[in-house]
Amino acid sequence: FEAQGALQNMAVDKQNLEIMMKRSNRSQATIVPPEMTVFSEDPVELGDPNVLICYVDKFWPSMINITWLRNGQMTTDGVLETIFYPRDDNSFRKFSYLPFIPTRGDYYDCRVEHEGLPTALLTHWEPQVPLPASESTETLVCALGLAVGIIGIVVGTILIIKAMKMNSARNQRGLL
Which domain holds residue 90? Predict the structure, then answer.
């Protein structure tokens, strides 16, 4: 190993590096802020375990922080994240999963921090569960069903009686 030769090689490498830096376009790559969507894995039923998915897409560079909030408080229980998936346009996408049991009144937020965003991006999610039918609605539906049934029986009986009368009148004409 020759120290003098190594020093000469280092000087040549340094000069080549400086030349390449001058020739290259040293502009910084464009920072692309993320887009995000939050959705549940399965249709939401109160009390049934489910998974919330935070899908973060079309961002560059791949340094990003994804956190979950439940009712405004940070939660990490059971949270899983995927690796960074590259896209054809050289940006990235990533998924974050939060297992949860839907409860009326709970709400969730997925918070994303990225250098392309001036402040953290927050996407809100609440379970969209239809309200149960009230007792008065159930009573009304039952009463309407009963009324339609009674009307059907009355109309059916009237039609049967008319048919029997027409049949007996036809039979009497036939005898004359």
Answer: 35-125
